[in-house]
Specification:
Four copies of one chain form a homotetramer. Chain A is α+β, with helices and mostly antiparallel strands. Chain A has a domain of 89 residues: Roll (Thiol Ester Dehydrase, Chain A). Chain A is built from four helices and five strands, in the order βααααββββ. Chain A has a five-stranded antiparallel β-sheet, with helices on one face. The longest helix of chain A has 13 residues. The first copy, chain A, is elongated and about 55 Å long. Chains in contact: A-B, A-C, A-D, B-C, B-D, C-D. At the A-D interface, strand 1 of A face strand 1 of D. Strand 2 of chain C pairs antiparallel with strand 2 of chain D.
């Protein structure tokens, strides 16, 4: 049952325009876990008191937290297990607030059958507004 | 590194060439936590059996895991609390293996006093070899 | 519940009808931790937006999350440290919602002194309604 | 790009014999996380000292820990997002030891197009030996 097992999508099955996405509500748990992982305890992320005296309405999610969903989509679904992350460029365009539901989406924009690199546009959206925009380069080894 | 302690470094104190760094040994705990955060359970990260049949010698660390240390350095030390992440570009140049000690380093390469943006070169190294290379753009709000 | 404290209850002290229970409010933290452990990021568990367009009123707790409390009760109190889990059958009878307080309860229904197996009915309830029902078989080694 | 997005596999695409699987090396991190989630700190799981005086060669993994991978496969891949867990029966046939690589596999054994229930055989294996065996019943709501 190849299609639903966690086997990689092979290079020749990948076409420009293919997409995959993942949605999650980002809660305090995710912020605190990312703070613990990164050491980033910037009060804009972890202090309600600091936020009340700032120009933000709620605590702001670390931009790299939902960026990690790109890694999840690449590693698990498109192209899937075995692929290698070559580069990721990210622009944090709008703040993401605690309890926002973020949809991470990757879309194939270029496939190089010779070098085995696939380029993706990578976005995160909240209520259909792009909050994170970027580009990724993924390499698919031959032996996968 | 007393100068970049946990009070913000104000924009006019920041000069080209300033650096801040952070070192950590990346263990299974960090990999599994990042897998849980990102949903990325690619077997190159989580399965010893898969690795034994691959060209890697040990399980590979998710590239975005130590990238998160840049967020930690920016948010905590240089420029410190209150700054905002505008963009981050990353190239994953060499695999990082479980139990490697990674040193993340940021270095100021450009300061714009008018727009209040600071550009950094951001690197992660293992045994003095650059494993992750990149550029970051940080904005320092006036009220910080 | 002093009788089922953290020293093992020996086989000959166990009688049909004995019970032990444990209560916990299931929060986003528990759901996200279970998602991270299991890889189950089904949007019924992690996305508020998805839930709003579904027939559920709030995010649903992974059924195996509070099922894990049976493991806690068996391993810690009845029979306690040293026992081995032989089997567990579970029916998920009603959805459990985020912020529900779940009471897990195990009740001895059969004791076999020869084979050293103890059978339990295992239930989870929310506001006195059974949400999870099941049966477990526990083996108590002689050397415990 | 429907095939690789996290959209559910519809009931009429599911056939007897379909499988999906997931592999992970179970480390101390997973054991401790499961202990924290379940409250099961049975020394067979968490104490090296206890294990040295027991008949086990290494700390034993909580049986319900890799059982959670079934939830991950059902919720994410087969049938995927939106499906509901109706029941799960599990037999723990052999101990799983810390640092074992476990492969969880689900296989469709029955599809009922009228009631919309799908039955699966669910197994976990270590080095091709079945360590956990079981059956699951999954319901696929119409609106998914």
């Amino acid at each position: 049952m190849s299609d639903f097992s966690c086997k990689p999508v092979s290079l020749d099955e990948i076409n420009v325009g293919m997409t995959a996405s993942y949605s999650q509500t980002i809660t305090d748990h995710d912020i605190k876990n990312f703070a613990g992982l990164s050491g980033d305890y910037n009060p804009v992320h972890v202090s309600d008191e600091y936020i009340q005296s700032s120009r933000f309405r709620k605590r702001v999610v670390h931009g790299l937290m939902p960026t990690s969903f790109f890694s999840g989509i690449f590693g698990m679904r498109l192209p899937g297990p075995g692929c290698l992350y070559v580069s990721q460029a990210i622009e944090f365009k709008r703040p993401i607030y605690i309890d926002d539901t973020v949809t991470a989406k990757v879309e194939v924009i270029e496939v190089d059958l010779v070098t085995r690199h696939v380029k993706f546009r990578t976005t995160c959206s909240v209520k259909n507004k792009v909050v994170i925009d970027g580009l990724a380069d993924i390499f698919i080894p031959k032996d996968v």
